[in-house]
Amino acid sequence: MDCNRYRIKTCILEKNETDLVDLLNRGFNPNLEGGWPIRLAARHGLHSIVKLLIQYGANPHLISEAGASTLQLAVYSGSFWNSNKWDFLLSSCDSSQLADGAAVAIIFYNIAALKKIMETGRCNTHIPTSLTGKTLEELAKGYKLQNILQSSRIQSNINDISPFSSPGNTRQNMAV
Protein backbone atom coordinates (compact mmCIF):
# COMPACT_ATOMS: atom_id res chain seq x y z
CA MET A 1 0.00 0.00 0.00
CA ASP A 2 2.88 2.39 0.76
CA CYS A 3 4.15 1.92 -2.80
CA ASN A 4 0.76 2.93 -4.25
CA ARG A 5 0.51 5.83 -1.82
CA TYR A 6 3.92 7.08 -2.94
CA ARG A 7 3.08 6.62 -6.63
CA ILE A 8 -0.23 8.49 -6.41
CA LYS A 9 1.35 11.28 -4.37
CA THR A 10 4.15 11.60 -6.93
CA CYS A 11 1.69 11.68 -9.84
CA ILE A 12 -0.30 14.43 -8.15
CA LEU A 13 2.62 16.62 -7.10
CA GLU A 14 4.35 16.24 -10.47
CA LYS A 15 1.03 16.94 -12.27
CA ASN A 16 1.45 13.68 -14.16
CA GLU A 17 -2.11 13.09 -15.34
CA THR A 18 -1.12 10.32 -17.76
CA ASP A 19 0.33 8.06 -15.06
CA LEU A 20 -2.49 9.02 -12.70
CA VAL A 21 -5.09 7.90 -15.25
CA ASP A 22 -3.14 4.67 -15.71
CA LEU A 23 -3.25 4.00 -11.95
CA LEU A 24 -6.95 4.82 -11.81
CA ASN A 25 -7.70 2.57 -14.79
CA ARG A 26 -5.86 -0.26 -13.02
CA GLY A 27 -8.17 0.05 -10.02
CA PHE A 28 -6.55 2.57 -7.71
CA ASN A 29 -9.20 3.77 -5.26
CA PRO A 30 -9.28 7.61 -5.40
CA ASN A 31 -10.94 7.61 -1.95
CA LEU A 32 -7.96 5.81 -0.42
CA GLU A 33 -7.50 6.42 3.30
CA GLY A 34 -10.30 8.94 3.61
CA GLY A 35 -9.77 10.61 0.25
CA TRP A 36 -6.43 12.29 0.81
CA PRO A 37 -5.46 12.28 -2.91
CA ILE A 38 -8.16 14.79 -3.93
CA ARG A 39 -7.38 17.02 -0.96
CA LEU A 40 -3.65 16.94 -1.77
CA ALA A 41 -4.40 18.06 -5.32
CA ALA A 42 -6.76 20.78 -4.08
CA ARG A 43 -4.22 22.03 -1.52
CA HIS A 44 -1.74 22.54 -4.35
CA GLY A 45 -4.31 24.26 -6.58
CA LEU A 46 -4.31 21.44 -9.14
CA HIS A 47 -7.86 21.89 -10.41
CA SER A 48 -7.44 19.57 -13.41
CA ILE A 49 -6.27 16.72 -11.17
CA VAL A 50 -9.11 17.35 -8.72
CA LYS A 51 -11.54 17.18 -11.65
CA LEU A 52 -9.90 14.00 -12.95
CA LEU A 53 -10.11 12.32 -9.54
CA ILE A 54 -13.80 13.25 -9.27
CA GLN A 55 -14.40 11.75 -12.72
CA TYR A 56 -12.87 8.51 -11.40
CA GLY A 57 -15.09 8.47 -8.33
CA ALA A 58 -13.26 10.57 -5.75
CA ASN A 59 -15.65 12.03 -3.21
CA PRO A 60 -14.96 15.78 -2.82
CA HIS A 61 -17.02 15.83 0.39
CA LEU A 62 -14.73 13.62 2.45
CA ILE A 63 -13.12 15.55 5.28
CA SER A 64 -9.56 15.15 6.53
CA GLU A 65 -8.80 14.17 10.12
CA ALA A 66 -8.12 17.86 10.75
CA GLY A 67 -11.57 18.76 9.38
CA ALA A 68 -10.51 20.21 6.02
CA SER A 69 -12.61 19.69 2.89
CA THR A 70 -11.54 19.66 -0.73
CA LEU A 71 -13.14 23.07 -1.27
CA GLN A 72 -11.47 24.58 1.79
CA LEU A 73 -8.07 23.38 0.62
CA ALA A 74 -8.69 24.61 -2.93
CA VAL A 75 -9.56 28.03 -1.53
CA TYR A 76 -6.50 27.94 0.73
CA SER A 77 -4.29 27.21 -2.30
CA GLY A 78 -5.30 30.58 -3.77
CA SER A 79 -4.78 29.25 -7.29
CA PHE A 80 -7.00 29.97 -10.31
CA TRP A 81 -9.87 31.66 -8.47
CA ASN A 82 -9.89 34.52 -11.00
CA SER A 83 -11.09 31.98 -13.59
CA ASN A 84 -13.84 29.39 -13.90
CA LYS A 85 -11.49 26.46 -13.30
CA TRP A 86 -13.02 25.59 -9.89
CA ASP A 87 -16.67 25.95 -10.99
CA PHE A 88 -17.05 22.17 -11.24
CA LEU A 89 -16.12 21.87 -7.55
CA LEU A 90 -18.39 24.74 -6.49
CA SER A 91 -21.31 23.12 -8.31
CA SER A 92 -20.91 19.94 -6.25
CA CYS A 93 -21.05 21.72 -2.88
CA ASP A 94 -24.12 22.41 -0.76
CA SER A 95 -24.78 25.71 1.02
CA SER A 96 -22.98 24.79 4.25
CA GLN A 97 -19.91 23.51 2.37
CA LEU A 98 -19.84 26.74 0.39
CA ALA A 99 -20.08 28.69 3.65
CA ASP A 100 -17.09 26.79 5.07
CA GLY A 101 -15.15 27.52 1.87
CA ALA A 102 -16.11 31.19 2.10
CA ALA A 103 -14.89 31.25 5.71
CA VAL A 104 -11.47 30.03 4.54
CA ALA A 105 -11.52 32.68 1.80
CA ILE A 106 -12.23 35.39 4.37
CA ILE A 107 -9.60 34.21 6.85
CA PHE A 108 -6.89 33.92 4.18
CA TYR A 109 -8.12 36.99 2.29
CA ASN A 110 -8.76 35.11 -0.96
CA ILE A 111 -11.14 37.71 -2.37
CA ALA A 112 -11.45 36.03 -5.78
CA ALA A 113 -12.56 32.75 -4.17
CA LEU A 114 -14.96 34.56 -1.85
CA LYS A 115 -16.58 36.33 -4.80
CA LYS A 116 -16.85 33.08 -6.79
CA ILE A 117 -18.45 31.28 -3.86
CA MET A 118 -20.90 34.11 -3.21
CA GLU A 119 -21.77 34.35 -6.91
CA THR A 120 -23.12 30.79 -6.82
CA GLY A 121 -26.12 32.25 -4.99
CA ARG A 122 -26.21 29.12 -2.84
CA CYS A 123 -23.91 30.09 0.03
CA ASN A 124 -25.76 30.41 3.33
CA THR A 125 -24.29 33.40 5.16
CA HIS A 126 -26.63 33.08 8.14
CA ILE A 127 -25.49 29.75 9.61
CA PRO A 128 -22.42 29.28 11.81
CA THR A 129 -19.56 27.76 9.82
CA SER A 130 -17.96 24.56 11.08
CA LEU A 131 -14.56 26.22 10.83
CA THR A 132 -15.17 29.17 13.14
CA GLY A 133 -18.59 28.78 14.71
CA LYS A 134 -19.43 32.25 13.37
CA THR A 135 -21.70 33.17 10.50
CA LEU A 136 -20.08 34.50 7.35
CA GLU A 137 -21.61 37.89 8.06
CA GLU A 138 -19.93 38.00 11.49
CA LEU A 139 -16.65 36.75 10.08
CA ALA A 140 -16.69 39.17 7.14
CA LYS A 141 -17.42 42.07 9.46
CA GLY A 142 -14.44 41.12 11.65
CA TYR A 143 -12.17 41.04 8.60
CA LYS A 144 -13.77 44.18 7.13
CA LEU A 145 -15.02 42.28 4.07
CA GLN A 146 -18.78 42.59 4.58
CA ASN A 147 -19.01 44.77 1.45
CA ILE A 148 -18.05 41.74 -0.66
CA LEU A 149 -20.85 39.66 0.83
CA GLN A 150 -23.29 42.48 0.17
CA SER A 151 -22.13 43.26 -3.38
CA SER A 152 -22.13 39.56 -4.35
CA ARG A 153 -25.68 39.19 -3.04
CA ILE A 154 -26.78 42.23 -5.04
CA GLN A 155 -25.04 40.94 -8.20
CA SER A 156 -26.69 37.54 -7.74
CA ASN A 157 -30.10 39.21 -7.44
CA ILE A 158 -29.45 41.38 -10.50
CA ASN A 159 -28.77 38.23 -12.54
CA ASP A 160 -32.21 36.90 -11.51
CA ILE A 161 -34.10 39.95 -12.79
CA SER A 162 -35.40 39.84 -16.33
CA PRO A 163 -34.77 42.69 -18.75
CA PHE A 164 -38.46 43.55 -18.51
CA SER A 165 -38.60 43.92 -14.74
CA SER A 166 -38.49 47.24 -13.01
CA PRO A 167 -40.17 48.66 -9.95
CA GLY A 168 -42.91 50.08 -12.19
CA ASN A 169 -43.47 46.93 -14.23
CA THR A 170 -45.54 44.37 -12.41
CA ARG A 171 -46.65 41.12 -13.97
CA GLN A 172 -50.15 42.54 -14.31
CA ASN A 173 -48.93 45.63 -16.19
CA MET A 174 -46.73 43.52 -18.49
CA ALA A 175 -49.66 41.26 -19.42
CA VAL A 176 -51.76 44.17 -20.71
What's the short version?
The protein has 176 residues and is mainly α. Helices cover 59% and strands 0% of the residues.
Structure description:
The protein has 176 residues and is mainly alpha-helical. The protein has two domains: 92 residues, Serine Threonine Protein Phosphatase 5, Tetratricopeptide repeat, CATH 1.25.40; 68 residues. The chain is built from eleven helices and no strands. The longest helix has 15 residues. The chain is elongated and about 50 Å long. It starts with a helix and ends with a helix. The C terminus is likely disordered. Keywords: ANK repeat. InterPro entries: Ankyrin_rpt (IPR002110), Ankyrin_rpt-contain_sf (IPR036770).
Shape: elongated
Largest sheet: none
CATH homologous superfamily grouping of the largest domain: Ankyrin repeat-containing domain
What is the CA-based Rg, rounded?
19 Å
Regions with pLDDT < 50 over 5+ consecutive residues? 156-176
Helix and strand pattern: HHHHHHHHHHH
What is the CATH class name of the largest domain?
Mainly Alpha
**Can you count the helices?**
11
What structural class is derived from the secondary structure elements? mainly alpha
CATH architecture name of the largest domain = Alpha Horseshoe
The end-to-end span amounts to 71 Å
* Number of β-strand runs: 0
Q: Residue share in helices?
A: 55-70%
What count of domains describes the coordinates? 2
Which band does the percent of strand residues land in?
under 5%
CATH topology name of the largest domain, in short, is Serine Threonine Protein Phosphatase 5, Tetratricopeptide repeat
Mean pLDDT: 87
